[in-house]
Design a protein that fits this description.
Layout: E1 4-14, E2 17-24, H1 26-49, H2 55-71, H3 92-108, H4 124-139, H5 142-145, H6 149-157, H7 171-189, H8 196-211, H9 216-226, H10 232-242, H11 246-249, H12 251-262, H13 272-292, H14 295-300, H15 302-305, H16 312-317, H17 321-328, H18 332-350
Antiparallel strand pairs: 1-2
Helix pairs in contact: 1-2, 1-9, 2-8, 3-4, 7-8, 7-13, 8-12, 8-13, 9-10, 10-12
Length: 357
């Protein structure tokens, strides 16, 4: 195994042809990891421009902007487009930025241009453009929300899992799902009543959930290079270090996020004050993985099991060094066949689509 094979349930158009399987080699993994790192560093710099004395509020804004930046890959264009003709109602992208503006305009110094104006009657070419340009200027949002379209789409190629078939799940939707599940579970445990400490813990948990698997591209890269298993949790902690969150959030909060990311599979290793958050993160990760990785279906399909002479149940239902070693022992031609067959199996189950030859 020299490349990561991404299974495409919906065929992807690449260089003039539709593909069921796309390959990501080590240079591209490095490039995508760097792209994610630079994207989040730009978020950190944006928050620093309007830094509040309350670290929990800084962390909340950081989380909001990271989520928005990651969604940029899912909804193109997410950022508002200002057209010549007046619009009497917003589209979904506009609504997100209206919410962002309303939440943070006092901190950015942007004048409130929406005062006493019903949402439906906003003159989008004038009022919307006024606040949008100021918000972009204050937070330098163009670095976050206006990457080249190709770069944003490239990030969406990253799978949540390196195993053919399970790699049909994508990393960015997985991160967003884990964050949503973890946040909801924490709020439910507190019965919706959060004091100041609870709010800070919620934001720490949310940050760790959004960031918990961002070490995967670099870890996979190093695993493929050395042909030895490398923990993505370890590289996730290194990813957190690279963001220099201490300057924005203080050492205690940034360390808590790092420890949660580093131990998101092993919450019992966390100190007492983080163990509850770690267990919520672990459960949210498991729940999201159950949703986006169809291991039960794939491990039992006879068409898949005939592709390679290895027990797929052990490959799809377990993780760690032993499982990785089995995958690494397979050549890329076998993995390509497995990935393409998995795409066919999943399509037949969900859409009854034919395989792309």
């Amino acid at each position: 195994m020299k490349k990561i094979h991404v299974t495409c349930v919906t065929p992807v158009y690449v260089r003039g042809e539709f593909k069921d399987d796309i390959e990501i080699d080590t240079p591209e993994l490095e490039a995508l990891s760097n792209e994610l790192q630079n994207l989040l560093k730009n978020v950190v710099e944006a928050v620093k421009r309007v830094k509040d004395s309350d670290s929990s509020k800084n962390l909340e804004l950081f989380n909001d902007l990271v989520v928005a930046a990651l969604k940029r890959s899912l909804i193109l264009p997410l950022a508002p487009t200002l057209q010549n003709s007046k619009r009497i109602a917003p589209w979904i992208g506009d609504l997100f930025y209206l919410w962002l503006f309303e939440k943070y305009y006092k901190r950015t110094g942007v004048s409130e241009v929406l005062t006493n104006k019903p949402l439906i009657s906003i003159k989008w070419d004038e009022d919307f453009k006024e606040y949008w340009e100021k918000l972009v200027s204050y937070l330098q949002l163009e670095k976050i929300f206006f990457p080249q379209k190709e770069r944003a789409l490239d990030l969406l190629k990253l799978p949540a899992d390196s195993r053919p078939g399970l790699s049909s799940a994508r990393l960015i939707p997985h991160l967003l799902a884990v964050s949503a599940i973890a946040t909801s579970k924490y709020i439910a445990q507190k019965q919706g009543r959060l004091n100041g400490k609870d709010f800070l813990n919620l934001q720490i948990l949310r940050a760790a959930a959004i960031l918990h698997d961002l070490g995967k591209p670099r870890a996979w890269c190093e695993t493929l290079k050395s042909q030895k298993y490398v923990s993505h949790a370890t590289y996730g902690a290194m990813f957190i270090d690279s963001l220099n969150l201490e300057d924005l959030l203080g050492q205690q909060i940034s360390q808590a996020i790092k420890e949660l990311v580093e131990n998101h599979h092993l919450p019992d290793k966390l100190p007492d004050n983080l163990r509850e958050l770690g267990k919520i993160l672990q459960e949210a990760d498991h729940k999201a993985s159950e949703i986006d990785r169809l291991s039960d279906l794939l491990s039992k399909d006879t068409k898949l099991t005939s592709v390679i002479n290895i027990d797929l149940n052990s490959l799809y239902k377990t993780t760690g060094v032993e499982t990785w070693n089995k995958w690494l022992s397979l050549d890329d031609s076998a993995l390509t066949t497995l990935s393409k067959t998995a795409a066919e199996v999943l399509r037949n189950q969900m859409f009854n689509w034919p395989m792309i030859s």
